[in-house]
């Protein structure tokens, strides 16, 4: 059953990618959410509605948590629950027409089961889960080297760096270098592929769900900093890292 669902979601992502690229070339509306730095477009909303509808068709009886609200009201993770980010990195989508992603995850009775992170511009999909491994398109990925902080680039939340929240400036100082990309999907992929040793940010359910599935499947650390454990239906300050980099970061954050 999951194999059939998995292929259907990969096909859906390819379809939504082409829809998104076509819409990017046309006019679309841009609205503000919480501030002028927090944008939502008609493309976000259209993708959200379309993906939510198609997931209900692909996996009847499932429920959908989606960023723009076209999914279901979900209070528990019983059964099949999909978590959707229709455009991750909306600011990049609007300002750069690059570096934005679509992310989908399936949790079954609360267990991270399938994850998908698509680079919309080049079409690369990072996908898989604990039972099947993690793939970059059709190529199986191996776990990245277990580098520590001093041997790793790190990605950190820009607002937290500016305010030195949780002592993150010291984390950046002790790393090999700091990077900020403006899209959780991009930063998660870079940890999966060893281009980053750690990523720490305040993440909403749709920012984290897919990356958590893939990172845990590769033996990486996924840990809430501001709570005893991760609640995938809530927002948390989360660290995704190699085991050694995680130890180094956790020794510094407060």
UniProtKB/TrEMBL annotation:
Q: Which GO terms describe its molecular function?
A: inositol monophosphate 1-phosphatase activity; metal ion binding
- Kindly list the positions annotated as binding Mg(2+): 67, 85, 87-88, 207
The record, for InterPro entries, names: Inositol_monophosphatase-like
- Give a GO biological-process term: signal transduction
Q: Out of the domains of life, which is the source?
A: Bacteria
Q: Which SUPFAM superfamilies match?
A: Carbohydrate phosphatase
The cofactor(s) it depends on are: Mg(2+)
- Print the keywords alphabetically: Magnesium, Metal-binding
One Pfam family of this chain: Inositol_P
This protein is called what? Fructose 1,6-bisphosphatase
């Amino acid at each position: 059953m999951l194999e059939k669902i998995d292929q259907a979601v990969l096909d859906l992502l390819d379809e939504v990618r082409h829809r998104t690229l076509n819409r990017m070339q046309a006019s679309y509306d841009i609205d503000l959410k919480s501030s002028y730095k927090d944008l939502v477009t008609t493309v976000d909303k259209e993708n959200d509605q379309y993906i939510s509808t198609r997931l209900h068709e692909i996996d009847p009886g499932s429920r959908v948590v989606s960023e723009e609200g076209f999914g279901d009201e979900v209070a528990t993770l019983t059964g099949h629950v999909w978590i959707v980010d229709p455009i991750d990195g909306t600011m990049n989508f609007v300002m750069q027409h690059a570096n934005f992603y679509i992310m989908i995850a399936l949790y079954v009775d609360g267990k991270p089961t399938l994850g998908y992170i698509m680079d919309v511009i080049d079409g690369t999909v990072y996908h898989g889960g604990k039972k099947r491994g993690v793939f970059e398109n059709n190529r199986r990925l191996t776990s990245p080297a277990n580098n520590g902080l001093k041997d790793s680039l790190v990605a950190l939340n820009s607002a937290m760096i500016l305010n030195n929240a949780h002592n993150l400036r010291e984390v950046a100082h002790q790393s090999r270098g700091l990077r900020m990309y403006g899209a959780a999907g991009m930063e998660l992929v870079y940890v999966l592929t060893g281009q980053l040793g750690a990523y720490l940010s305040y993440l909403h359910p749709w920012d984290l769900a897919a990356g958590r599935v893939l990172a845990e499947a590769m033996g990486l650390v996924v840990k809430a900093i501001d709570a005893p454990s991760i609640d995938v239906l809530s927002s948390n300050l989360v660290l995704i890292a190699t085991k050694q980099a995680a130890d180094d970061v956790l020794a510094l954050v407060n």
